[in-house]
Amino acid sequence: MPVVRDLRVLLRLRNFRRLLAVRLLSQCADGVYQVALATYVVFSPEKQTSPAAIASAMAVLLLPYSLVGPFAGVLLDRWQRRQVLLYGNLLRALLAVGTALLILVSVPDWIFYASALSVTAVNRFVLAGLSAALPRVVDADRLVMANSLSPTAGTLAATAGGGLAFIVRLTAADSDAAVVMLGAALYLCSALASLRMGRELLGPGPDAMPTRIGAALASTAKGLVSGVRHLAERRDAARALAAMTVMRFCYGALTVMVLMLCRYAWASPGSEGLALLGLAVGVSGAGFFAAAVCSPWAVGRLGRYGWMAVCAGAGAVLVPALALPFALVPMLAAAFLLGLATQGTKIATDTTVQTAVDDAYRGRVFSLYDVLFNVAFVGAAGVAALMLPPDGRSVPLVAMVAALYAATASMVVRWGRVSPLG
Of 144, 183, 257, 399, which is the most buried if we count CB atoms within 10 A? Predict the structure, then answer.
């Protein structure tokens, strides 16, 4: 297989192997920590979980990526990246230990969320540092290959970490604090792995002359504003982003509903509900994988807007049909199909943005894309918190989501008629 062959080529590069090890350990720890946070908020027997608590947890997990991300590069160009990986992971290990202690002593929720927010905020610097360091360990001819495989491997590591957290929580230790400590240990291993690389290896070089930090931050903010203006002039990209934002909002609202159903409606409080959540996440992930397989063919046959319309239209029809019984098996079918529809729309949107936006603005537009993607999910959690009853069964929420899917499908069909992308 080409992917296996490419990976073998890259793994012959010693410093690439070392940087990849840091990434895998770091993102595996991310997966463990995020699942530990979610299970503590949702499935702790001593906590009466509410949709508002779930919305708060999602904000903690996702907003730092969006709000800190565009500005992380300004500091990464001033600090040695090996040191960012070392001290960033050490700091996260220490903060994760603090989170575990807060779980054990049952502090007020705002203190717990502040601790968790600190861990996820530091993560943005570590991930950006890993990406910025890649050209220092791979030659130019292999850089595209490395940019394709390295983040994918990190995503798989995060997924594996989440699975490991579920296993530990369900079998080895019925303790959220123990799972958080596992994440802290993995962060520490990632920090130690970074020491295998020289301090100067990952740059920036000694000849780098960054501008003053205030000017650099101001320039970044101005760049984002110019990215918004450019996006407004590229209607295909702006329309695709609008459709993707609505689809992501719908997926987020249904995710909160499924969390509440797993916690209260489908199982007794405790490990059974957690196992059902793991099953729902796995089924939805299978839908994401199916989208990656079928989207190239679907876009080729239907066009980008055509495929997006099919995805949104399927959501409009299937959400009420499968979700309104509020039963496990139909909801799992919905999780798979909506995972496919959401990821299928994202694949079409990514391609549209890449082709419709000028190269000089592409990075800024994708930063805005990242903000919209995560803020839509958090906003959906907030709306769901206002609409959901304690057991998660909400006909108005299902009706709202179905209506949004239908409206999106209608808009996308109309846009497709006037766009060369079809």
Answer: 183
